[in-house]
Amino acid sequence: MTLTSFGPANLIKRSPETHPLTWRLRDDAEPVWLDEYQAKNGYAAARKAFADMAQDDIVQTVKDAGLKGRGGAGFPTGVKWGLMPKDESINIRYLLCNADEMEPNTWKDRMLMEQLPHLLIEGMLISARALKTYRGYIFLRGEYTTAAKHLNRAVEEAKAAGLLGKNILGSGFDFELFVHTGAGRYICGEETALINSLEGRRANPRSKPPFPAAVGVWGKPTCVNNVETLCNVPAIIADGVDWYKSLAREGSEDMGTKLMGFSGKVKNPGLWELPFGVTARELFEDYASGMRDGYTLKAWQPGGAGTGFLLPEHLDAQMYAGGIGKVGTRMGTGLAMAVDNTVNMVSLLRNMEQFFARESCGFCTPCRDGLPWSVKLLMALENGEGREGDIETLLGLVGFLGPGKTFCAHAPGAVEPLGSAIKYFRSEFEAGIAPTSAAVPPLARPIVVGA
Question: pTM to 2 decimals?
Answer without folding.
Answer: 0.91
